[in-house]
Amino acid sequence: MERVEIFEVGPRDGLQNEARQIATEDKIALVDELSAAGFARIECASFVSPKWVPQMADSAEVMAGIVRAPGVSYAALTPNLKGLERAIAAKADEVAVFGSASEGFSKANINASIDEGLARFEPVCEAARAKGIRVRGYVSCVVECPYDGAVSPDAVRRVAASLRDMGCYEVSLGDTLGRGAPEAVDAMLEAVLQELPAERLAGHFHDTEGRALDNISVALARGIRVFDAAVGGLGGCPYAPGAAGNVATEAVHDMVTALGYETGLDRTVLAQAAMRAKGMRSAR
Ligand code: HMG
Ligand code: MG
Predict the structure, then answer these.
(1) Which of 23, 102, 143, 265 has the fewest CB neighbours in a 10 Å radius?
(2) What are the catalytic residues?
(3) Considering only CA atoms, which of 68, 48, 55 is closest in space to residue 26?
(4) What residues does each domain of the chain span?
(5) Residue 117 in contact with ligand 1 by CB distance below 6 A
């Protein structure tokens, strides 16, 4: 059976946007439950400025408190060298830099232009490589930007190629706003696939308008087999006003399983984790 990997981002992308301060021990319990569900990669920390994203300020404590399951890569966001140092100290297995295909979001999210952001990521990639830590690259706003409107496929292609050139092992394409139409996603993928093969790409769809599963279908047809998702549909981005959570992991699992792919995930444990995640969200 052909495999689709779901990259679980709930503990990071899901929780970073919660207004209520979630207890560190609750975050740890969520990650531990996700480890038992069978994910190969779980993004559970973000070493960004705590002034910008207070919810992620306890990332080092989360990384220290989780029980690491063998074979699972515990990932963290690192916007700059300071973030990378913190991630290394916390023993992150892999890190991610995150750029944008639109200027407006880049400025709002990392206080830098697209090119300034890319220039900052280069030394992060170099230093991570020296430590044997692999780096994933995100491109945000691959179809639409909350500040600049429609984003051209060529802009996405250019940023994805830069991330590849600096050594990112995989580039995750983010519909940050969650409003991308499948036709626009398809056109964007066509452009990016001229630079990177499908095996080095992932789809990262937020689900504001209920189109994420359709967009995953489009990406599957283009050969992409890795999708980021958040258990229970947690999340949103603090710098993308109006954006809803990531597509729910359990929904992606059910869809791709029905299409004949295997995910390697335990559906029962996944359901428990989804309940736990939803409880964290509603308990505001
Ligand atoms: P800045 O204010 O321009 O940075 O922020 P700075 O270098 O001038 O530093 C300002 C202060 O922050 C200094 O402290 C630094 O030490 C500190 P002060 O001297 O004022 O006390 N600082 C840090 N502290 C801890 N860890 C660090 C760090 N860096 C600086 N790593 C910066 C620039 C990039 C830091 C800031 O804009 C930032 O943290 N942005 C992150 C925003 C964010 O986390 N957004 C959500 C994640 S992205 C996302 O969700 C999209 C994604 O899911 C894909 C998709 O959906 O599209 C990935
Ligand atoms: Mg996201």
Answers:
(1) 23
(2) 237
(3) 55
(4) 5-280
(5) no
Neighbours of 259 (CB within 10 A): 12
Could you tell me if 226 and 245 are in contact, meaning their C-beta atoms sit under 8 angstroms apart?
Answer: no
* pLDDT tens-place string over residues 216-260: 999 999 999 999 999 999 986 778 887 789 999 999 999 999 999
Class of domain 5-280: alpha beta
- DSSP annotation of 169: S
Distance (Å, rounded) from C-alpha 153 to C-alpha 163? 16
Residue 195: its H or E element:
none
The reply to whether ligand 1 has any atom less than 6 angstroms from the CB of 17 is no
Ligand 1 closest atom vs CA 174: 57
Residue with CA nearest ligand 1 atom 53: 13
What's the CA-to-centroid distance between 204 and ligand 2, angstroms? 7
For residue 131, give Cα distances in angstroms to 30, 48, 85, 89, 248. Answer: 28, 20, 11, 12, 33
> Which residues lie at CB < 5 A from ion ligand 2?
13
CB–CB of 229/246 below 8 Å?
Answer: yes
Give the separation between CA 126 and CA 165, rounded to whole angstroms: 11
Distances (CA, A) of 16 to 12, 13, 78, 192, 235: 6, 6, 14, 28, 7
Nearest one of 39, 48, 43, 6 to 27, comparing CA atoms: 43
CA of residue 180 to ligand 2 center, whole Å: 13
This model of the complex carries an ipTM of 0.98
| Cβ 237 under 6 angstroms from ligand 1 | yes
Which residue CA neighbors atom 13 of ligand 1 most closely? 49
* Residue 50 near residue 57 (C-beta atoms within 8 A): yes
Residues 115-134 have pLDDT tens digits of 999 999 999 999 999 999 99
SS3 (DSSP) at 252 = helix
| Residues, the chain | 284
